[in-house]
């Protein structure tokens, strides 16, 4: 499964880009335990204390994990983290292209994970988080789309070098009807969207401005959108190395209690969970 956990806060937690970070972080391990995925690709887990909390709470379920604390210039660490029930190793590539403020304040990239599956074979998962624009650049502005396109090109180049079964998962900040040229860029490179393979076109989203966590956020004027994806390489499907069984939107329940007495979702994004069979 993939989930943008939305745990971004700055200035010692005084500024939260999605509110109730502490309450949602506390509820996240139980949510992941309930969903019982074998591999979890997380985005926006920036603080080392938060990573250690998640790992400690879930060590019996996910004894293996990979993340890198890389950052350049000023700002926050990279927020990618992959949990696995089987051994995993990985490396991080920060994006070469970014909006000017993200070059100094954020450190988005792609976490390449080699996961041991079955009888010792390897599964490659590229956990990604591309740009959502910037403080001064609308997520769907032509310049944002061009930056995102170059970031996707870097991801696809990494994927092309892999001979094992390869999947791409995470927050693309693009999808059907929103920065669609970026979404199509992945499809045209030989990948299939796991959700779209099993569902007719619908109005299901993974980020919704009507969500309580987004109503006052920096992107509250953006339309609802399905921007969190799992992509499977078409050749792996054709050759029978992957069989897709199901693909569902998850983490939609308002189950986290807040100090205001209301309930919110565990993140400002919903998750995507994919069930598949893998053949060596």
Mean pLDDT across the residues is: 93
**Percent range for β-strand residues:** 25-35%
In total, how many domains does the architecture comprise? 1
> Which CATH first-tier class would you pick?
Alpha Beta
| Low confidence ranges | none
- Label the overall shape: globular
Indicate the radius of gyration in whole angstroms.
17 Å
Q: What would you call the structural class?
A: alpha+beta
Helix content: 25-40%
CATH homologous superfamily heading: Endonuclease/exonuclease/phosphatase
Instruction: Report the total helices.
Output: 7
Task: Output the strand order for the largest sheet.
Answer: 7-8-9-10-12-11
Number of E strands: 16
CATH architecture, by name, is 4-Layer Sandwich
> What fold name goes in the CATH topology slot?
Deoxyribonuclease I, Chain A
Give the ordered list of helices and strands.
EEEHEHEEEHEEHEHEHEHEEEE
Describe it for me?
This protein is an alpha+beta fold. It has one domain (2-278): Endonuclease/exonuclease/phosphatase (Deoxyribonuclease I, Chain A), CATH 3.60.10.10. It is 25% helix and 29% strand. It is built from 7 helices and 16 strands. The protein has helices at 21-35, 48-58, 100-105, 142-160, 180-188, 194-198, 234-238, and strands at 2-4, 9-10, 15-16, 39-43, 64-67, 81-84, 88-94, 109-117, 121-129, 165-171, 191-193, 228-233, 242-250, 256-257, 263-264, 271-278. It has a 6-stranded mixed beta sheet with strand order 7-8-9-10-12-11. Strands 1-4-6-5 form a 4-stranded mixed beta sheet, with no helix packed on it. A hairpin with a 5-residue loop joins β14 (256-257) and β15 (263-264). α4 packs parallel to α5 (180-188). The longest helix is centred in the middle third of the chain and has 19 residues, at 142-160. The protein is globular and about 50 Å long. The two termini are 21 Å apart. The relative contact order is 0.16. The model has no long low-confidence stretch (mean pLDDT 93).
